[in-house]
Amino acid sequence: MTDFSGLELIEPLRRALSAEGYTAPTPIQAQSIPHLLGARDLLGVAQTGTGKTAAFVLPMLQNLTASSKGRAAPGRPRALILAPTRELAVQIGDSVQAYGKFLKINATTIFGGAPIGKQIRALNSGVDIVIATPGRLMDLLNQKKLRLDEVSIFVLDEGDRMLDMGFIPDVRRIANLIAARCQTVLFSATMPEAIAKLAQGLLNDPVRVDVAPQSTTAERIHQRVLFVDKPKKRALLSSLLKDESISRALVFSRTKHGADKIARHLEQDNVRTGVIHGNKAQNARQKALNSFKTGQVRILVATDIAARGIDVDGITHVINFDLPQDPETYVHRIGRTARAGEAGQAISFCDHEERDFLYDIEKVTRKTVPVDADHPFHAADIAAAGPSMGKSRSANPGNKSRRGGNGGGGRNFGGGKPQHPSKASKGYKPRGHKGKSQGNRGGSSRAA
After folding, report:
1. Which of 14, 167, 303, 315, CA to CA, is 20 to 30 A from 197?
2. Domain-located, residue 120
């Protein structure tokens, strides 16, 4: 498909897409939009930077327009989009505004770290679409400032992180408060088996759309690993950044404290640097992100949770100062570069303690990361080391278990049936979200 005209989108949406400079759908959009316009439940798997947001926002706007009966009732939205972080929620909200600029559809974004009173006033004015993080949404539900019984479209974006970052109980409670007839959509860059099984409890006879092999990395991303002793990592980073081709780089730290230390070190080197993590106030995080977008700072240091939703054009490099323990997190990280058809580079530092993490990443992504030994801090002993038996999944293929339960810190994904947040102490048992009728509900049956 060469343009959006073949997707049967209404004229106001096509006009908005044209105003944004978009002429042709991406594969995830071309394969998902027809099913979503037909009200099918959908499980979409695609790498970051492939256009997942437009894939669910465009059909949502069109379906809400077709079913509109006037302004939404106060505190009773008609569509709900859940995102794991504030930054991603803001990004989705911006997309809803851009694509819906010629429609009479209104939306609001709610998340923690912002005045709740302003968010309550927005809800009371009547909004069609709520984009929310789970924590703040639960606060509003507990305060009875919001009801979900009118929600007809429910979207979980970054589904693997949503269900893998401790939000499982909240997601289940929220899903159980939504009408059984609701269309449910889950989009994600990766879909580990345990998360896919959990998603089955939320989706009814879903279409599955995969536009990239499971947990693979973008072909346009040039990857390399630099072996280095842990105490020399900051010196290695300073050495790398002497290369002026690294014009806009996202640096990942495993911890908030580590992110602050990296940022202070770079500022001492006169490298303009911003930092975002969970301990930063929302306005500070947004200021740092805006400075990065506009080029006022060259480097943005982030932790994984805070980095969700960073959609910045022109990121030339992603630097893994600390390798992640979870391979899917690696895929998410490096997907911040090489977006919108551009090329990019992913550079990973690997110390002795992270050797097993590298083996796991290579196993899951099915790609050996090339070694770059041409730097002054190369640690040959780490490069020559093999995996630690009993620690790496690669070293012990017979062991199906995964550290921390798919990155979830050992949480129990099974869990019991959640209770209504306002009636948990009364033994209240709501009906399950999967109680909706089976079948195609009149949607498109075209294959993905």
Report:
1. 303
2. yes
The reply to whether 441 falls in a domain is no
Per-residue pLDDT averaged across 326-341, rounded?
A: 82
Give ∠ CA 186-337-228 in degrees, rounded to 5: 115
Beta bridge partners of 245: none
Q: What's the rounded Cα separation, in Å, for the pair 413 and 168?
A: 7
pLDDT digits (tens, 9 = 90+) for 266-325: 999 999 999 999 888 878 888 998 999 999 999 999 998 766 667 788 899 999 999 999
Show the DSSP H helices in 213-276 as ranges: 233-240, 256-268
Q: Which amino acid is at 77?
A: P
What is the average pLDDT score of the chain?
83
- CA dist 380 and 400 (Å) reads 31
CB 90 within 8 A of CB 132: no
pLDDT at 391: 46
Cut 0.85: pTM above it: no
- Tell which residue, 319, 311, 320, has the closest CA to residue 289: 311
The reported pLDDT for the residue numbered 400 is: 33
Q: Which amino acid is at 371?
A: V
Residue 32 lies in a domain: yes
d(CA 23, CA 111): 32
How many domains does the chain fold into? 2
Domain that holds residue 305: 221-384
Q: Measure the N-to-C terminal CA separation of the chain; round to a whole number of Å.
A: 13
Eight-class DSSP state of 23: -
